[in-house]
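On clarity, I found the account of how folds are encoded harder to follow than it need be. Since the whole study asks how a given chain folds, the encoding of that fold should be made plain. For illustration, here is how one protein appears when written out as sequence plus structure tokens:

:::
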Amino acid sequence: MHRNCLICSRENFKVIFTEFNIPILKCRECGHICSSYQPPEHYEGYFGEETLPGEAEYSYWGKAHFPMYAEFARRYLKNKKGHLLDVGCGLGYFLAQIKEIPSWELYGCETSPVAVEYGIKRLGLPHLHQGSLESAPYPEDFFDVITLWDVLEHIPQPDTLLKRISTLLKPDGFLFLHTPNAKIQIPKAKLKKTILGMKEGIHYLEAKDHCHLYTPHTLAILLKRNGFQEIKMTHLPPIMAVSGNNSSFRVSMKKGWYYSVKALETLSMGTLNLDNLFCLAKKK
């Protein structure tokens, strides 16, 4: 198990959790958390090799995310204009929701051929690039906004991606990303394992998919060294489903948690963030 820490480059880890025989590691030097599993750098099988997703996938990937996307659009895109790129756009639901804003020209980049086909044929998205961001023919200083929705945690070595994003942004542009928060994900996984044991079908830390788990501190370090500044954490409404289940009880519990963590952060004067990480970073 020889590897260097993404954040501090040291090689001094301890195991803090084990998910189906895959150790989850924490750096003893800087506290960064990562999976010991080593996936391909540009993993293209996330959506499987099946045909285009159907209504079941729409219920989760589409409807469950809409409140989050709508609030983002209201806060950052309304009454503005420019070019927006969604990196790792998946099935394209974020772009589909905001494409009705006429003042924004929308682009998407996604490695999965199945997902890109879905975005083009089902959702009518015109500017989708199938492949890595590094292979996309976008000009430098072109985009006003670039988004990473649940992407960063999947990238084994994210520096190249973030540097490329920085070059694509206009001087006054910004990156907005959403990624799990290690401060809450680790305790949740341990609690599930204690109560339920290790069972297939239960989401713990997704050790084969999530290469890294960030905290506000480690995420800021990563962004600053790749050309970003004025890094701020915020909150958006949660995904209206729990592990793919959108029952009214589970969604109500999730909403309650969302309002609770917002209040807790306010009471702690911004020092305690137990929500997922919603991060805005401006180009340096």
